[in-house]
Design brief:
With about 325 residues, this protein is an alpha/beta fold. It has seven helices and eleven strands. Strands 1-2-3-5-4-6-7-8-11-10-9 form an eleven-stranded mixed sheet, with helices on both faces. It starts with a helix and ends with a helix.
């Protein structure tokens, strides 16, 4: 009888823990949907062959335009996985014969999709003006498997690394793509994934720019690789200072302090141990580690009080900052 009661108690504990994990997941997803960039519309802004005519997603910034950008937004499906996987590409409509465009891969956050990521900033206007190819892969159930984080992709053991390798290979083979100039960025869960990809595929990209993410595993690049990390302080979802947040409960690894984490990346790049710190308008702080090995550099931009959002305001444009770091704008 005692053994039966013990077995019943164990089952009840497991059920309670499972229910708590599901509840926490729903709370975090709801928070992400409220706080992360949200799409202007829920459908793709253009068909696979027609130019987009949608207006910029936000108010005036250094990357907004006054007329609808002339770009082509295409949907792509990748086979060879358990389920079909998708990604979007955005290219200038007037690509000339022989013109080759740098590639910028963009990973969405938890609970939002590739279309929301496209609409989070004026990517269309930037693509038309600065002449590059933007790529928006789709995570399984709007999530990326980053090992310690994040459901449901990590619980399903989704092979996102192989998927992103496939997307990069397909895009790099396009006649309008410059495979020698490839860059990677991502927001939140996407930013966490950027760190993992940057460590595992250091030779594949010239520079990476995680935003509001975290180097959960503390990995290092296998070769010097330029990095720009943009992050709000405080951030209620992915903490800047490493202190616990509700999202921490969905990860089996602690969120590291951002400054310490970026400094460790700079050390791996062979940068000076002490950064140059610049105070910008609005309390924005930029820390720069350079010179570094192989001409790389590492930057951390701390944005006060911006919350867990892609920064697109009159005094600071995260997209423009990133493209300048990539030497595209």
């Amino acid at each position: 009888m005692a053994e039966r009661r013990s077995s019943t108690t164990t089952i009840l504990v497991v059920l309670i823990v499972a229910a708590a994990v599901v509840l926490i997941g729903l709370v975090v997803l709801a928070a992400q949907l409220r706080q992360e960039p949200t799409p202007l519309d829920e459908s793709p802004s253009a068909s696979a062959t027609s130019p987009t005519t949608s207006a910029p997603a936000s108010g005036p910034t250094s990357t907004t335009t006054t007329t609808p950008p002339r770009v082509e937004v295409q949907e792509h499906v990748v086979s060879g996985f358990l389920l079909p996987r998708e990604y979007l590409t955005v290219a200038p409509l007037d690509v000339q014969p022989g013109e080759q465009l740098p590639i910028v891969m963009v990973l969405h956050g938890l609970g939002v999709d590739r279309h929301a990521m496209l609409n989070a900033a004026d990517w269309r206007g930037a693509v038309e003006r600065d002449r590059f190819l933007a790529v928006f892969p789709q995570g399984m159930a709007n999530s990326w498997n980053m090992g310690p984080c994040c459901p449901p992709a990590n619980l399903l053991a989704v092979d996102d690394m192989a998927f992103l390798d496939t997307v990069l290979a397909e895009v790099s083979a396009r006649p309008d793509a410059d495979a020698a100039r490839r860059y990677l960025t991502g927001f939140s869960n996407g930013g966490v994934m950027v760190y993992a990809v940057a460590c595992a595929r250091s030779d594949a990209y010239l520079a990476v720019a995680p935003m509001a993410g975290s180097n959960l595993t503390g990995c290092r690049p296998t070769r010097p690789l330029s990095l720009l990390h943009q992050h709000s302080d405080p951030d209620p979802v992915v903490p800047f200072d490493g202190n616990p947040t509700i999202a921490q409960l969905l990860s089996s690894a602690d969120f590291p302090d951002v400054t310490t984490s970026v400094a460790a990346w700079a050390a791996a790049d062979g940068c000076p141990s002490t950064p140059q710190v610049q105070e910008l308008d609005g309390g924005i702080e930029r820390s720069t580690w350079e010179p570094c090995s192989d001409g790389t550099r590492v930057e951390l931009v701390r944005l006060p009080g911006r919350g867990h959002n892609w920064p697109t305001t009159e005094d600071y444009d995260g997209l423009a900052e990133m493209l300048e770091f990539f030497d595209i704008s």
